[in-house]
Design goal:
about 475 residues; alpha/beta; FAD/NAD(P)-binding domain; Flavocytochrome C3, Chain A, domain 1; 6-stranded mixed β-sheet; elongated; oxidoreductase activity; FAD-dep_OxRdtase_2_FAD-bd; FAD-dependent oxidoreductase 2 FAD-binding domain-containing protein; flavoprotein; Succ_DH/fumarate_Rdtase_cat_sf
Length: about 475
């Protein structure tokens, strides 16, 4: 055991957006901060490396955002995707605080691209990072370095010793040694447990072995499990997560945002038996894309297949892998290993149920729906008739899990009703405090930024 000689005021566990917001805020308050990031330096940043945008409340044009996006509208969007399973007090805190976060992000090196228009329908609600999440992470690391924040890479935290109502020390493995550090404050921002597929399988059952992990392979929930085992208050359902339907050709880990497919609203989606199983046009994609991971997970072999025709190919953001292409539906079925007769019949039944398509509008709910079809398609329902035909395979891609550490409005953790005096949490490791189920595009970054800054402020106040 090697006792770290130069003891920091605050240890921040994790190296993504929430951790960096906490470290920067604490350092600006005068605290000496050490970040323990389990990944090697080229892979630093956790899932934040793969993000694209930040969902932000605003009362008028703000940065790249146009018009306004009020607290009540934002909350209504969140309630719709979560089915009301959220802590409204913490949700409103995240939403309300997001407005001041965007200028703070800009002040700390984050750059935004011009307002995004088109099929994602996000020009009012989501600010997109210039250069993506990796640029955001790099900007924050540069800011942290200027503030004197120390970073240890490939530093895997193995244990936080809970002594009554405080963390007495932090143990971590680094450079072949087990080290111990005794900070005044600890911020846990080390993500969920999704990269531990055995843990996923214990929660979900054997089907989870077929899931792909969109984000970092380093989020294995080691710190989360350690704290929960010691009685720190937990929140969330281990089977609930941010899971989307991604390209079935994506790698097992770390495929990131580019493996996401945005074509579902303009398609039909079938299972391996070539049968439709859900309304592809239920809502605009940023409000509904996160339900499709769970829908695909419920299908045989946890796979689905998107079918579109030539007239829909350019209506969504391009995919990283080209679609499978064929001149006939029978040929497409053969290439995708689907039963050809069943696919042809499913498409024929869908086409027959499509009505007047003159009102088709790809960027908003258009009411162009099927008639007498189960399940229906309630928007963007156009016959699939124009060759060539295209297809994508779908698999469940897990971004992060919602089982986590329960926090209050100060981002503080507790044992029962007793706060742990020097322990705070931010980001995906506490997101289940707000997200009971479902997901809203860009909201993970909102949670991480808001609660990272709160945790950093509170940890510094305690240390000082």
């Amino acid at each position: 055991m090697n006792q770290t000689a130069d003891t920091p005021d605050i240890v921040v566990i994790g190296g993504g957006n929430a951790a960096l917001c906490a470290a920067i805020t604490a350092a600006e308050a005068g605290a000496r901060v050490l970040i323990l990031e389990s990944a090697p330096k080229p892979y630093r940043g956790g899932n934040s490396r793969h993000t694209r945008n930040f969902r932000c409340m605003h009362h008028g044009p703000l940065g790249p955002l146009v018009d306004s996006y009020t607290e009540e509208e934002y909350l209504a969007d969140l309630m719709k995707v979560t089915g009301g399973k959220t802590d409204e007090h913490l949700a409103r805190l995240a939403i309300r605080t997001s407005e001041e976060c965007l200028p703070w992000m800009q002040e700390h090196g984050v750059r935004f691209q011009p307002s995004l228009s088109g099929t994602l329908s996000l020009a009012r609600t989501n600010a997109f990072f210039l250069g993506g999440g990796k640029s955001l992470v790099n900007a924050y690391y540069r800011t942290a370095a200027r503030l004197g924040v120390e970073v240890h890479y490939e530093a895997e935290v193995t244990h936080l010793e809970l002594d009554n109502d405080r963390i007495a020390f932090v143990e971590y493995a680094h450079q072949g040694e087990t080290r111990r550090v005794t900070p005044k404050s600890v911020v846990v921002a080390s993500g969920g447990f999704q990269a531990d597929t055995d843990w996923l399988a214990r929660a979900w059952g054997p089907a989870a072995k077929n899931f792909l992990i969109r984000g970092t392979p380093y989020n294995r929930g080691v710190v989360l499990a350690d704290l929960l085992d010691q009685g720190v208050e937990q929140v969330g359902d281990p089977t609930q997560c941010h899971a989307v339907a991604i390209d079935g050709r994506a790698p097992k880990f770390d495929g990131g945002i580019v493996t996401r497919l945005d074509c579902v609203p303009f398609s039909i989606v079938v299972n391996k038996d070539a049968q439709r199983f859900y309304d592809e046009g239920e809502d605009v994609w940023p409000k509904r894309y996160a339900i499709w991971g769970r829908l695909v997970a419920a299908q045989p072999d946890q796979v689905g297949y998107v079918i579109i025709d030539a007239k829909s190919l350019n209506l969504f953001m391009p995919s990283v892998f080209p679609p499978i292409k064929a001149d006939t539906l029978e040929e497409l079925a053969d290439k995708m290993e689907l039963p050809a007769d069943a696919l042809v019949q499913t498409v024929a039944e869908f086409n027959a149920a499509c009505g007047d398509t003159s009102g088709f509008h790809p960027t908003e709910l258009d009411g162009v729906s099927t008639n007498g079809l189960t399940p229906p398609k309630t928007n963007w329902a156009r016959p699939i008739t124009e060759p060539p035909f295209y297809g994508y395979s779908l698999r469940t891609g897990v971004t992060f899990t919602y089982l986590g550490l329960k926090v209050d409005e100060r981002a503080q953790c507790a044992i029962g009703n007793r706060p742990v005096r020097n322990l705070w949490a931010a980001g995906e490791t506490m997101a289940g405090s707000i997200l009971g189920q479902g997901y809203l595009a860009g909201f993970g970054m909102t949670i991480g930024t808001v609660f990272g800054r709160i945790a950093g402020k509170e940890a510094a106040a305690h240390a000082n």
